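Propose amino acids for all 356 sites.
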């Protein structure tokens, strides 16, 4: 099996950190994932509002340390309860970014373009509250990996299943439209044209090759291939057009899978292999396969394209991992430990402190 470098790895399952590390080792080895980037997700929107995980950033940096020198980590911005004092929040985002990039994080992950977060915070990714942050990232050539919008069918109320609506995976008019979310990205690029910006899940643009190309017309923009909705299957249906784009911008597409340390239950193998296998079947074969509820045919990319997408572009974007400040990890874990009242968090933080 050919080795791959995965730019899109999460660690949000409720598993003790110590166990998570062992699971990752096993999963990385079985999928031949030799380098990887841990992406922090401190916030996510639920029905009750936005939830916050205070340990995401520190856990990500600790995972990077554990898997050094093959690992990278992107921090997530921690948001306040509200964004009313926008100047203060803008200053805080800038301070956070400066800190993260100086203590060993390699970039910033933004889930901030996720429809339910944009709605809950009433804050687009082009809001001026992010300007100083983007400007800092652009000036220093630090990468931002952003999730914006979602698959187009999530806005299709007519054809959505009752379950999807109930789960909040379908967006009615109380949510921003998909096109408004995509426009926000272009607004950011108009202000910060040299920003190193990666859109996850190919920007959910599999139905709009022209939009994808306008995004890539900026000098430092890239897409990751992380499955979602399903972009690759959609592209496969119009592969002639997409292949041209992939060839023209072959240095701007990154392998990524939404890799997780999955709980080691009877579905473990199936769960962690699903997405890497899908992306690899699509890229490495021309056979027919099933993925979730779709059937697809692989497009077989030659070794030169695979080299770029699987490995070269990752190294080009991330270069050498930034050096980790053990002192920062220690101080942050200690500080969080004094504030935390959840057993699971305390256990993880103690594990970090005992293994620095
Ligand atoms: Zn993700």
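Proposal:
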């Amino acid at each position: 099996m050919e080795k791959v470098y995965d730019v899109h790895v999460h660690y949000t399952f409720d598993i003790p950190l110590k166990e998570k590390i062992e699971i990752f080792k096993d999963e990385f080895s079985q999928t031949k994932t030799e380098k990887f980037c841990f992406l922090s997700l401190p916030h996510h929107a639920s029905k009750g509002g936005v939830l916050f995980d205070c340990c995401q950033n520190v856990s990500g940096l600790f995972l990077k340390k554990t898997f050094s020198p093959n690992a990278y980590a992107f921090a997530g911005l921690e948001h306040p309860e509200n964004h009313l004092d926008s100047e203060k929040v803008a200053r805080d985002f800038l301070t956070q970014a400066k800190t993260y990039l100086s203590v060993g994080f390699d970039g910033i992950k933004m889930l901030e373009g996720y429809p339910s977060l944009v709605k809950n915070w009433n804050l687009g990714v082009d809001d001026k509250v992010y300007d100083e942050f983007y400007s800092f990232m652009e000036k220093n050539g630090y990468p931002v990996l952003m999730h914006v919008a979602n698959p187009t069918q999530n806005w299709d109320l007519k054809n959505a299943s009752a379950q999807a609506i109930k789960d909040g995976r379908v967006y009615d008019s109380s949510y921003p439209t998909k096109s408004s979310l995509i426009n926000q990205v272009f607004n950011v690029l108009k202000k910060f044209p040299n920003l190193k910006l990666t859109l996850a899940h190919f920007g959910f643009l599999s139905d709009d090759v022209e939009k994808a190309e306008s995004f890539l017309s900026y000098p430092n923009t890239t897409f990751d291939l992380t499955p979602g909705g399903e972009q690759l299957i959609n592209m496969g249906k119009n592969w002639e057009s997409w292949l041209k784009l992939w060839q023209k911008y072959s240095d701007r597409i990154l392998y990524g899978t939404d890799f997780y340390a999955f709980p080691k239950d009877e579905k473990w193998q199936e769960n962690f292999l699903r997405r890497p296998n899908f992306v690899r079947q699509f890229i490495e074969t021309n056979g027919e396969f099933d993925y979730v509820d779709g059937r697809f045919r692989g497009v077989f990319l030659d070794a030169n394209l695979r080299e770029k997408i699987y490995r070269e572009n990752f190294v080009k974007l991330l270069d050498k991992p930034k050096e980790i400040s053990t002192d920062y990890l220690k101080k942050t874990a200690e500080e969080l430990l004094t504030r935390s009242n959840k057993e699971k968090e305390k256990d993880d933080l103690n594990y970090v402190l005992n293994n620095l």
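The chain is about 45% helix and 15% strand. The domain at 4-325 is CATH 3.20.20.140 (TIM Barrel).
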